[in-house]
Amino acid sequence: MCGRYTLSNKGKVKEKFNKEIIPNFNIAPRNDVLLINKEEKVCVMNWNYNPSWAKKPMNLINARSETLIEKPSFKESSRCILIADGWYEWQRERNIKKPYYHFRKNELVYFAGIYNKSSGCAIVTKESHKKFSFIHNRQPVLLEEKDFSKWLNGQDIFESTISEEIDFYQVNNKINNPKNNNPDNLLKFNKNDIINYA
Length: 198
Hints:
The protein is mainly beta. The protein has 2 helices and 12 strands. The strands form 2 sheets. Strands 3, 4, 5, 6, 9, 10 and 11 form a 7-stranded mixed sheet that branches. It has a 5-stranded antiparallel sheet with strand order 2-1-7-8-12, with no helix packed on it. Strand 3 and strand 4 form a beta hairpin. The model has no long low-confidence stretch (mean pLDDT about 95).
């Protein structure tokens, strides 16, 4: 599951997409997020997917790549690409959850996504790369720029070499609260500075 991520590199977003952003160090479900839609246009959409036929909100934020094609919830969806520069994932140890930040040094990362115009978008996930699977068993599907058009036009691209370039480290549990949105979220965890922010 991918339930929290970041987009803070203003320079890279400006360079690649000519867009100005407000850095966000704790993007949470139901936030508005920056993405590339099926028409290959950069736009803002809500991170919260609901099939048009659903009688009650389903509020989906992830879609498993393994069942993407067959699941009724996603059959009417279009493809998109969410723009990010890292994501958080929690490692569970007994009753303790330790957050880790995953990132590609000095680069943006691109999550495969789906959307519909009546609600919003969801991140497509897959089994985690062996390098960081000890943290969590799922990760976003990461796309290379050369594969953008293929993904947006319906080709399934669930594997890339990008996962091999991902670094990660433990961060403070203050990111558990989505209201905590500042650059300190990205500082490496210091066990001498434990505060309960949940």
